[in-house]
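Here is one such protein, fold included:

. . .
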Amino acid sequence: MAATTTLRVGVVQFAPKIGKVQANIAKARELCNGLTPRCVDLLCFPEMIFTGYMFPDATSISPYLEHPKTGPTCTFCAELARRLECYVAAGFPERLMWDSSTTGGVAHRPPAIGFNTAVLYSPTGEPLTLYRKSNLFETDLSWATPGSGFTVLDLPPPLGRTTIAICNDLNVHQPAVWDSLEDGPYELARHCMREGTKLLVLLNAWLKARDDEEEEETSGSDGEAPGTEEGEGAHDVDDDDDDDDGLEPNWKTLNWWAHRLRPTWAHHSTTEQENDDQQTVCQINGSGSKDLVVIACNRVGDEGGKTFVGSSAALMMRRGSGRPKLLHAMGEREENIGIWSIPMRL
């Protein structure tokens, strides 16, 4: 039987105010005040959490673009990593350090002035990596240029081989179209499988779909899982996402995230999957090999007429099991820190 260890993860979910960087950092610091050194191995903050996300154009976001290492997000993360002696990941808008008229391969858009970036700090407060969002969402296109693609980090246990991605990276990379459950494309899932990723960290600013929109971050054409077999229609398990206290996760969003990672948990033959009415995301059970732990850290709140869906979660994807396994989840409007212990195979 394979040896296991425990990964302790902290997921910080709250509603920042757009453009109020220092106030948002103060709120994050307050939420983290109760954490003690070495109480977690990894602490996660969402995409662009301290600046806010829904900037309408390059001019509006320009004052908030940050320099790596010296900007407010990186300074705070380094300080927190040293205090807690843990890894800290967070998203921020990075200032482009050279003049650029490139469109990053995206036609009919203005010159880029930055990257949508995630940073990871070590327990000693040293920067380990800058990952730049590959699959830009429509809000990013007015100011950001895509990064160079997914990577993987070899980190000490309990983290292991780790991939960091940002929000819309989980969706189909345009101009591709998700038209087959079997074939995808599943860009992020295939990367994780190819590279032997054990831990996938998703830093999100994921929006809640309105009733007349597709259930995904974009309002594009592939909001429903295609096909008629395993995972049809994402097996919606709870259409009443507007619970009174906001402490229930948005099940449609969790199911969508799981379906976009389908190759990491699907049966090798889709005909082996029973077509029933059970929820796609279910409680963990059993054991197996080739596990992928997914940490999705999302934000809440409203900006620019849009609502962020929260529902930060930890999931276990076991190759060939036929179902993703929900380990932990936060509410759709919950502002808090989730502290989760997750079994990891060595």
Q: What stands out?
A: Residues 101-105, 212-241, 270-279, 282-288 have pLDDT under 50 and may be disordered. Residues 4-345 form a domain with the Nitrilase/N-carbamoyl-D-aminoacid amidohydrolase fold (CATH 3.60.110.10). The chain has one domain: 4-345. Residues 34 and 181 are 44 Å apart (CA to CA).
